[in-house]
Amino acid sequence: MGTERTDFFQQLKAAVEQREGVPRGSEIVFRCPNPEHDDEHPSASYNTVAHIFHCHACGKGGGSIQLAKLLNVELPPGIPGRKGDLVLTGLWEYRGPDGTLLGYAARYDGKKKIVLPFFEQDAAGRWQNKAPAAPTPLFGLDKLAAQPDAPVLIIEGEKCASLIQNLGGVAITSQGGSGAAAKADWTPLAGRRVVIWSDNDGPGAKYGKTVAKKLASLSPPASVSFIDVAKLALPPKGDCADWLAAHKGATLNDVLALPRVGVPGDPDVEDSEFAAVFKKIRSMPTAWIDPSIEPPPRRFLLTRDGQGYISRGIVAIIAAAGGVGKTFVAVQAGVAISCGRPLFGVLDVVEHGRVALLLAEEDEDEVHRRVRAAAFGVGLAFAEAEHRELLIRNLFPVDLLGHPNIALAAEQGAITTFAEELLPRLAREGEWATIIFDSVVRFGGPDVEKDNAAACAFLQTCEQFTKLPGNPTVILVSHVAKAAWGAGSAASSPRGSSALRDNARWAASLTVDDKDPTAVELTVTKSNYTAPGQAAPIPLVRDAGGCFAHDAGRCSSTKNGKRRGTNLPALILACLGREGPCTVNRLRMALGRSNTDIKPALARLLQDGQIGVNRDGPYPRYQLVDPEPGAEP
Q1: Taking a C-beta distance cutoff of 8 angstroms, is the pair 512, 484 a contact?
Q2: In sequence order, what are the beta bridge partners of 101?
Q3: Torsional sign, CA 187, 188, 194, 200
């Protein structure tokens, strides 16, 4: 393929103009090419948009192919002038950056419109109706290379792109129509300033969005803005050609001055969502060096002994092997934060508020069971109207088990439709304290735990949720490899990609005692914004219902395979709250403890006034509620 210029319609237009052609709008008035008509005064007209001609004197007329034959202008070999009842009305060259001819896009009109690719030649040099191999070349690469500093307009379709090129601008489109944008090679636009002009319809908007995502993934990414099609008074499905037809004499500067919206990374467009960011950046140095301006205090979601434990507005990860209880910890955290109750009895909620609990590994019934058990575990009583109202107002548990399209990030960092719909829905509800996603592999996609790029894209999408009203903390529940369980630090990290832990601002692991599966330890493995002393492990004990409580007396070591100092009173309170009045025997079976352990703990709780006992019946029953008639305080 050579670099010779063979633009058929440009040659045809030039041949028309040589016959004393005078432009009049979209037409050229010229001397009729009919050899039987000696046209001394131009009486024929050629429409450069519809590609038809007509002589008003002799009546001769036809399409561009008939006119080309009369003017000795030839089509490129192999490209037909007709396809059945359809007539060739447009032919556009695809050229590489150095001008090398790559192929053609041919448009045929009639009862319908088709655009056919011609990107291969046979041995005789005739063009074949075949599409280019993916990734497909862009239309206008030669114009792009010729003006390396010029803004680039991306427009759907070769016809519209050619109109901008005729104005002296750099205009690009992808081969194959609006549905093939993802197949194109957009790398030549890395680092360029790009303006996308979408058609005024749904497919056009989708095309623009797809292209913008591709450009954002380049290295360096292109600076992208969109022409605000809603302000152009275009008809439905209207495009660049319609606007130019309605604005005769419009220049390239007129096009570049059209209103824009949604500008990720273009500081020159002040009505974009990022304009305020750039203004803030310009003002930041003054704040840094002014001693009278104090930085805002750090907000915390949870504190421990009055000190920050986990910050507000960050992405955090809780990791554990299967069956250890990470989902239950997440549910307990959601319940505690929504109601302002201490988590495990040692972590205080700074500001209670709304919690979105998005669970993709449990069905609706299991979510119900876990929320109810967690509520009892943090000391809520459903008999209290205030407690019920707090849960109703602030806790939003959602069962997403089996939902096929809940990934938050797609390939190359693009945000998914699910995330795009979820973010504004949450924003409309008001301020949030916490968003919990269980689990990482369900919401991050199949590659998030084995591919660093996928993990980074997922974490970046999660960070968008921290910008919701209220500056919520996003808590991700992650698996760790079972083979690493009990293998020291290897067991403390999320499974697979190191980017998960590296990019999160806080991470913790749940590790279980090999000899006592009810003994669990919550250990902070990473914390960017808290003092090192707050990372001391929290020993927890899990009751038969799955609820966790602080095991204050437990040492880090065991003796004879038995746990020391288990906080049995806390377990008893959680069990009574979950199951109601219980006998000693029922508590023994539920908690797996002997009567020798349970009875002294019950005595302490009775002495402290935390429980009562009803002695009606053959066996005493211990309960959390106010004593019934006959019960002893």
Answers
A1: no
A2: 95
A3: negative
Q: Is 48 helix (H, G, I), strand (E, B) or coil?
A: coil
Omega of the bond leading into 77 within 30 degrees of 0 (cis): no
Q: Residue 241, exposed/middle/buried by CB under 10 A (0-12, 13-18, 19+)?
A: middle
Q: What token pair was written down for 231?
A: 């302000």
Q: Tens digits of per-residue pLDDT, 569-593? A: 877 887 787 778 888 877 876 776 6
CATH of domain 134-295: 3.40.1360.10
pTM over cut 0.70: no
Class for the domain spanning 300-562: alpha beta
Q: Which residues pair with 152 in a beta bridge?
A: 170, 194
Using CA atoms, how far residue 277 sits from 56, 215, 220, 274, in Å, is: 61, 20, 20, 5
- In a 13 Å sphere around the CA of 397, the CA atoms on its Cβ side amount to 27
**Residue extents of the structural domains in the chain:** 1-128, 134-295, 300-562, 584-632
49-84: per-residue pLDDT in tens? 667 899 999 989 887 778 888 998 888 899 988 888
Q: Which long-range contacts (CB under 8 A, 24 or more apart) does 561-567 make?
A: 561/515, 561/516, 562/515, 562/516, 563/513, 563/516, 563/519, 566/519, 566/541, 567/541
C-alpha to C-alpha distances, 6 to 58, 112, 160, 223, nearest whole angstrom = 31, 27, 20, 33
Residue 401 sits at φ, ψ, to 5 deg, of -60, 125
State yes or no: cis peptide before 478, omega within 30 of 0: no
Contact 91/108 with Cβ under 8 angstroms? no
CB-side neighbour CA atoms (13 Å) of 63: 12
Instruction: Tell me how far apart the alpha carbons of residues 187 and 210 are, in angstroms, rounded to a whole number.
Output: 14
Selection from 218, 168, 174 nearest residue 192 by Cα: 218
How far from each other are the two terminal CA atoms of the chain, in whole angstroms? 98
Sheet holding 307-311, edge to edge: 307-311, 300-304, 347-349
pLDDT in tens, 438-489: 989 889 887 787 777 788 888 888 999 999 999 999 999 988 754 433 333 3
Q: What is the CATH number of domain 1-128?
A: 3.90.580
* Token output for 131: 């599409």
